[in-house]
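User: My advisor, Dr. K., asked me to get a structural model of this assembly before our group meeting. I'm new to this, so sorry if the format is off. These are the inputs:
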Amino acid sequence: IAKSRGPNSAVYYHPSMCKEVELRLEIEKELKTAIRSADEFTLFYQPQYAATGECIGAEALLRWNTAQRNLSCPSMFIPVAEDTGLMLELGRWVLFRACSQLRELQESCVPNTFKRISVNVSAAQFNQGNFLNDLINAIDQTGINPNMLCIELTESSLIKNVSDTVRKMGELRKLGIQISVDDFGTGYSSLAYLSQFPISALKIDQTFVRNLHENKGNNAIVETIMSLGDSLNLSIIAEGVECREELDALQSLGCEYYQGFLFKPPLPYDQLLPLALQGQPTISYSTDPSAT
Ligand code: C2E
Ligand code: MG
Ligand code: MG
Ligand code: MG
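Assistant: The format is fine. Below is the predicted structure of the whole assembly, which you can bring to the meeting.
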């Protein structure tokens, strides 16, 4: 048949394309079941540090423990959840879970050097009509003080509908919630918009942190983000700090807050708790213990 259609009519099928589609369908099916009971999901927490060495907060990162396959890494399943609309329900679970664990921290009298638990919110979740309601429900039902809750949004969530975003962000700020822009520099948010958003922090994407001490381009980008933060009065967090040289370079550019494997990897809640309760410098370099 292929011959009779001539050489230009062939339909090229790459076996890996088929495999990928199949894998996504399987993940979608497994996700649907998993979301119903939610007991395969957990939140890990990656501590954030100040230049002075205190643990000043932590970012909640979703993990999925499934018997079927190794999907603990969110980049495997979050895109599937986002494309299929499942992220709305999963995101609601994340919000609620993070708030309950924040409540536990607040009941354990976490010191005031510890300022936030950050929660990642997908563009679709943020832009959906019920987001504020879901958030208020989570706050009410868990009884947290929302001053310690931070929402991380990526640039792409912000530009979809600027006036709507400004209004929603205003509501969040009225509730006392902090807002940071995640993966900053990788999207295409216009600087003009950025100044309209009532945000509290920018997170420098780890691609710019990588080899900052040797890479002139990255150094220039980080320097620019630092001065932007200065003029817009935003705090700056560098993410994905992996080595001492990157930390030194960030410090000399004036960056105050850090997150990355050099400090701590994402940890189960039980391991976050003692770090959060410490209230004094506890920097420990997980990749190079001799550095302290
Ligand atoms: P993100 O929010 O930018 O999170 C930072 C990611 O960088 C995390 O990956 C973290 O484990 C990783 N990381 C931290 N320090 C280092 C480092 O020093 N070196 C390197 N190479 N990586 C580091 P993770 O946990 O795999 O999450 C990936 C992405 O998945 C997140 O990026 C976020 O966009 C998304 N995500 C995770 N949890 C959630 C969630 O609950 N809801 C939503 N909507 N998205 C989530
Ligand atoms: Mg994040
Ligand atoms: Mg990020
Ligand atoms: Mg990211």
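One thing worth pointing out at the meeting: The beta strands are 41-50, 55-64, 116-120, 149-154, 178-184, 201-204, 235-238, 257-258, 267-268.

User: Perfect, thanks a lot.
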